[in-house]
Specification:
By secondary structure, the protein is of the alpha/beta class. Helix content is about 25%, strand content about 25%. It contains 11 helices and 26 strands. The strands form 6 sheets. An 8-stranded antiparallel β-sheet has the order 1-4-23-22-26-20-19-17, sandwiched between helices. It has an 8-stranded parallel β-sheet with strand order 11-10-9-8-7-6-5-12. It has a 4-stranded antiparallel β-sheet with strand order 18-21-25-24, with no helix packed on it. The protein is globular and about 75 Å long.
Amino acid sequence: MKSRFLFFVGILSLAALQLQGQVSYLPLKVEGNYRPIGQLIPKTVNDIKAENLTVGCEVLDRDYTNYDEYKTYLPALGMKKIRLQAGWAKTEKQKGVYDFTWLDHIIDDALSRGLQIWLQTSYGNPIYQGGGTINLGGGMPKSEEAKLAWNKWVEAMATRYLGKVHEWEIWNEPDLSEEIPAEDIVDMNIRTAEIIKKVDPKARIAGFAFCTLNGKLLEDCLKLVEKEGKLNLFHWISYHGYEYRPENSYKAVMNFRRIIDKYAPGIQLRQGENGAPSKGHMGGALDNYDWTEMSQAKWDLRRLLGDHGHGVETSIFSIIDMAYPTGLNKYVAKLNVKGLIQSNGEKKVLRVKPAYKAVQHFATLFDNFSQRITSYRMTCGGEEESFAHNLYQNAEGAYSFLIWNQTEAPRNDNEMQYKDVTITGCNFTQPIWVDLLTGWIFEIPVSAYSKQGDAFTLRGLPVYDSPIVVMDKSVLK
């Protein structure tokens, strides 16, 4: 079946803008003879084929958000998977007695909406001496009693969700605390993965969930797992790794890839948690900058596409702003505003942010990016290092070329640059220009492109610090 994109055309309003010699609409101004033809209508999750996109639905285990407030927004986002934290302390409030009612409700509802579950086994349980806490960075179970109780809870949970949950992750951000040695991280990961695999041999498990991209720690852990002969327990190594300029992550990410290939080339990389705040100085990762909703949306797009361009499964954190209790821990002290949906301290949905729409556009187009092309060259007047770019081809042979200015972190304005770009190894019959931030679609004038040999040139291509896509109009339906 052909990949399809839906669009609408507002002929009168768009034509009126075009008469002014410059098409303008908030938040973009595109100069030249680019003719607007409509706007992407996002696909819902039931229309999306790609199964390697995740949106974070974390912190429900600690009641910092309310699933029922935002559940209807999940299918429209177009991301197939949700990441949940299982909440040992919320499930076992009395020793040996499990109440999974709260988690049953979330998992059953999500499955009924066409979503898939990625379930993480975190955090500790203070009813046991040495059982750790429910907080980020609160420490793993240490006492023998707590470890045994953890094992029993994991087995009960894996048994309960057999046939419903097929993907798991072990303990969130163990490297946030410098007190946890590699030996303890590996013990937790192997022990938990073996319990899950005993219940469900086909389960796919992400190990480690590191918050940093510490190559030495990864290698220390993989050496220990290899020594135990347990590398086959893990399908992914997951990591987070927040950076103000998102492209700064990939040197360390590719180092992770090299280390994994040294020990277990079959294990995949998975970016399990990343997102930008929509307001600065609110606590949490990346809070020391003056963010806006616009720069958040750009950052989210650049990280998602950067991950995909580097062959990494990707996710966005998080679906909604999270109401962390003030002063709970040193990592997040206020409302965590990384949500695609704006919320408040009462956990109510207020509205979707521009980042929600941007991620919708990404998920819709992502379905068309079936094959990443690596054997091509891009030239841009000697400024190639200033731009990140990916080239894809779909099942029908149509190309999609993505490009954005990567020289600095996302800005709070949308000033365009106009560049002559040449791409080898691809062709476009009737190219269009698609802005992922807003979803607007423009026809590229015939005078602005040409083909010579295997080189396709676009003259005066509008580019900025948010990803745009050049693709064939024939793809639109």
